[in-house]
Specification:
The chain has 370 residues and is α+β, with helices and mostly antiparallel strands. It is 63% helix and 12% strand. It is a multi-pass membrane protein.
C-alpha cells in the first residue's frame, strides 16, 4: 500500500510540474490560433504522462532498457496525439474561417449565408444565431426603407397641401390690401376657413410627432363604449349631413373600457371623417362595438367600394392617401397614422379589411376587468 502511495505521489508531482509549465505556455499563446492552443494542450498531456512515468521510473530504479522502452512508448503516443490534434485543430480553424467570411459579408449589409460544411456544435449554434440576427436586420432594413419612403411622401404631400392654401391666402390678402376685392367679407370668411385648415394640418403634425417621439401622455379613465361612440357620432353628424351620408350605430354593447377619452374620441373622429368623405351620397357609415375574446372591438364600416389588396398593408402608414379619388380634399395622410399611434399607446391594435361594398376599420382595446 505504501508503494502505491509513493507511485501516486511521484507521478502527481511529475505531471503537476508539466501541467504548470503548460498553463504558463497557454497564457503566452492565448491570443494565437486555436491550432497552437490545441497542440499545447496535447503536448502538456503527453508531457505530464512522460514526466510522471520518469519520476516513478527513477524511484523504482528501473534498468536502462526498461526505461528506454517506456520512453519510446510514450514518444509514439505523443506523435500520434500531436498528429490527431493538428488534424482536428486545422479542421476547426477552417470551419471558423468559413464562418468568419460569412459573417463579414453579413456585416457589409448582405444577408448571412451559413457555410455549406457544418462545424462543431458550438459553431453550428453560432451560425444559427447569426442567421436569426440576419433575418431580424433584414426586417429592420425593410421597415426603415418603408419608413423613409413614407417620410419622403409625407414631406412632398405636406409641401403641396401647405402651398395651396398659402397661395390662396396671399392672393386674397393682396386683393384686400389693394382694395380690389368685390366682396371683402367673403374673402375674410375664406381666409378664416383656410387658416383653420392649416391649423388642423399643423395640429395633426404635432400629434404625430408626439406619437413617434413616445411623448404622448395618456390620462386613462373608466368609461362606457356606448358613451364614447355616442359622442363621436354626435361630433360627426354635421359633416355626414353635409355629404348626404347616414350615420348608423349598429350593435353597440355598453361594455367598459379604460382609455383616454380625448384621444380615443380623436381616433373615432378620424375614422368617421375618413369614412364619411369616402362614402358616396346616400351611403351609410355604420359604427359598432362589441366584446370579443381579444378585447373590446370598435368598428367603423363605410361604403367606399373597398381598398385594393396591395394597399391594405399601407393604410396606416404615415402619409398614405391612396388614389387621388379616395384622397380627402384637405387630407395629408396623417389621420390613420394618428389612429394607429393612439391605439397602440393604449396597448391595442388597429386593422382594416374589405367588406361587401366598402371596408371596415376595427380598433381592438384591452378588456377592463370587472
Amino acid at each position: 500500500m505504501q508503494d502505491i502511495l509513493l507511485i501516486a505521489l511521484f507521478s502527481f508531482l511529475g505531471a503537476g510540474a508539466a501541467g504548470l509549465l503548460g498553463a504558463f505556455v497557454l497564457m503566452l499563446v492565448r491570443h494565437r490560433s486555436l491550432t497552437v492552443s490545441i497542440t499545447v494542450v496535447v503536448f502538456v498531456a503527453v508531457t505530464a504522462m512522460l514526466a510522471g512515468t520518469l519520476a516513478v521510473a527513477q524511484a523504482m530504479f528501473l534498468n536502462t532498457h526498461d526505461l528506454q522502452v517506456v520512453t519510446m512508448v510514450v514518444a509514439m503516443a505523443a506523435v500520434v496525439s500531436l498528429a490527431t490534434a493538428t488534424i482536428l485543430s486545422r479542421w476547426v480553424v477552417a470551419r471558423s474561417r468559413a464562418l468568419t467570411i460569412a459573417a463579414r459579408s453579413f456585416g457589409d449589409g448582405g444577408d448571412f449565408a451559413a457555410p455549406a460544411e457544418g462545424g462543431t456544435a458550438e459553431l453550428a449554434a453560432l451560425s444559427r444565431e447569426l442567421a436569426a440576427t440576419s433575418a431580424k436586420l433584414a426586417e429592420s432594413r425593410d421597415r426603415e426603407r418603408a419608413l423613409e419612403t413614407s417620410r419622403r411622401e409625407l414631406v412632398a404631400w405636406i409641401s403641396h397641401d401647405l402651398r395651396t392654401p398659402l397661395a390662396g391666402l396671399r392672393a386674397m390678402s393682396e386683393a384686400l390690401e389693394d382694395g380690389v376685392a368685390a366682396d371683402p367679407y367673403r374673402y375674410l370668411r375664406q381666409i378664416r376657413t383656410e387658416v383653420e385648415r392649416l391649423n388642423d394640418m399643423v395640429g395633426d403634425l404635432f400629434e404625430l410627432s408626439r406619437i413617434h417621439a413616445g411623448t404622448l401622455a395618456l390620462s386613462p379613465s373608466r368609461m362606457s363604449v356606448y358613451d364614447l361612440v355616442g359622442d363621436a357620432l354626435a361630433g360627426a353628424d354635421a359633416l355626414a349631413r353635409e355629404h348626404g351620408v347616414r350615420l348608423v350605430g349598429a350593435g353597440i354593447d355598453p361594455v367598459p373600457v379604460e382609455v383616454d377619452g380625448k384621444e380615443m374620441s380623436r381616433v373615432l373622429g378620424n375614422l368617421l371623417v375618413n369614412a364619411i368623405r369616402r362614402t358616396p351620397s346616400d351611403g351609410t357609415v355604420a359604427v359598432g362595438a362589441h366584446r370579443s375574446p381579444e378585447g373590446v372591438v370598435l368598428s367603423v364600416t363605410d361604403g367606399c367600394g373597398g381598398i385594393p389588396e396591395e394597399d391594405l398593408p399601407r393604410v396606416f402608414d404615415t402619409g398614405w392617401r391612396g388614389t387621388h379619388a379616395r384622397t380627402p380634399p384637405a387630407g395629408a395622410g396623417l389621420g390613420l397614422a394618428i389612429v394607429r399611434g393612439i391605439v397602440e399607446a393604449h396597448q391595442g391594435r388597429a386593422v382594416v379589411r374589405n367588406v361587401s361594398g366598402g371596408c371596415r376599420f376595427e380598433v381592438t382595446l384591452p378588456t377592463v376587468e370587472a
